[in-house]
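Researcher: I'm preparing a figure for a lab meeting and need a structural model of a single chain. I don't have an experimental structure, so a prediction will have to do for now. The sequence is pasted below. Please return the structure as tokens so I can convert it later.
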Amino acid sequence: MKIKLFTIPNLLTLSNLLCGSFAAVSALAYGNLTLAFGLVILAAVFDFADGFAARLLNQSSPIGLQLDSLADDITFGFAPAAVLFTLYGRMHSQGLPDAEWIGYFVFLFTAFAALRLAVFNIDETQRDEFLGLPSPAAALFCVSLGWISEHYGIAFSREAILIVAVGMGVLMLSAVRMFALKFHGFGWRGNELRYIFIAVSALLLLCFQGVSVPFIILLYIVFSLVRNIVCRAGKRNG
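Model: Understood. Here is the structure written out token by token.
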């Protein structure tokens, strides 16, 4: 069987991987967390585009699925951990010993992301919604903290950085059902939550720009939790 490697969707996926790799280098080698933030956002655009192109061009393939997960663990697993590691090195502890080696625990985020992506590949129930926080959302939360710190001079304690790394990792592996931004047509009915979330997110970005990113991710989590509660209540009443 002849396998086509360099299809348009696969090239977009590789662009995602390269952006994630450059983001990690930017954070670890050059300490430029603003550039790392921009590269991860660009990678997220490529990550969205590869699936869209695969469906549009009818070029979906098993190798594309595996390549996508490999790229995502670099971009949305390793690169965010690299940003947190660099950020950890710049901050001071409020209670933990000021030992640099403790900062390596932020790479647990990478391990959690790898597990999240592996589960996604074999779980057929995650096509219209997600089980746990999607790795791109967790990654954007983490890398945005680096941008906020550099752009506004905001300091985060080392403890807070460790909590973010582990907390986001746990959310990725949680059993919480989270809605996907996959529209069922363009009508309001059935897409109410998606339209509201996009509208609120756009307003936050317009008013607060990049600093709104972590709040948008938290909003996504809250919306998903409320959706789960409403769905469960509806099933009990039904």
